[in-house]
Specification:
Belongs to the 3-oxoacid CoA-transferase subunit A family. This protein has six helices and eleven strands. The chain is of the alpha/beta class and 233 residues long.
């Protein structure tokens, strides 16, 4: 069994270079690869195309890469919490492709399954459909969308083993598992790293065959994007 463990985030992202396309897992600020993002900021790679459900916030997540102008293009479904993203979009500094959330997830899944395209009714008759092929199946129109092609997929799991098997918790399962399947090289950071055989096979969400590098991070912030509490009586 191949040991895929690397020392840290710096080693995990060692061969990411300018101009590449990177998938970044997570949902909101839940389950995002904090340590790899920090390492990318430190390394200073630029002209990146980032595929992620969201764009982080101004001082956290992908927002850190936007702040340092390392992102050329964002491919996302929700971008409403980042003022710097908004500024760069409106000024024309940043290319943006907004995608319906289900389509984003399914294009990731298609890449993992080896499917070149999917057909979806989402976006038919809207600006999303401009320039795209439409086909009719059983009287209903569908858009043809291409599977993503990402040089790297970077995900964050709760627990993993040195063979690359991953276990996610709760909301972090929204995009991390499908992105883990989809990258040409998949990097996983985990809160706890164990030896093969220590994970219950029934609890593994991503088999190690999809993962190329894995490391254990520490000190995760786990921020809340929008804290909402009941008013005191």
């Amino acid at each position: 069994m191949i040991n895929k463990r690397v020392a840290d985030a710096d080693e995990a992202i060692r061969d990411i270079i300018d101009g590449q396309t990177i998938m970044l897992g997570g949902f909101g600020l839940c389950g995002i690869p904090e340590k790899c993002i920090a390492a990318l900021v430190k390394k200073g790679v630029k002209e990146l195309t980032c595929i992620s459900n969201n764009a982080g916030v101004d001082d956290f997540g992908i927002g850190l890469l936007l702040k340092t102008r390392q992102v050329k293009k964002m491919v996302s479904s929700y971008v409403g919490e980042n003022a710097e993203f908004e500024r760069q979009l409106l000024s024309g500094e940043l290319e943006v492709e907004l995608i319906p959330q289900g389509t984003l997830a399914t294009r990731c899944m298609a890449a993992g399954y080896g499917m070149p395209v999917i057909y979806t009714p989402a976006g038919v008759g809207t600006e999303v459909a401009e320039g795209k092929e439409t086909r009719n199946f059983n009287g209903k129109d569908y858009l043809m969308e291409y599977a993503f092609e990402a040089d790297f997929a970077i995900v964050k799991a709760w627990k993993g083993d040195t063979a690359g098997n991953l276990v996610f918790r709760s909301t972090s399962r929204n995009f991390n598992p499908v992105m883990a399947m989809a990258g040409k090289i998949t990097i996983a950071e985990v809160e706890e790293l164990v030896e093969p055989g220590e994970l219950d096979p029934d609890h593994i969400h991503t088999p190690g065959v999809y993962v190329h590098r894995i490391f254990q991070g520490s000190g995760y912030e786990k921020r809340i994007e929008q804290r909402t509490v009941r008013p005191r009586n």
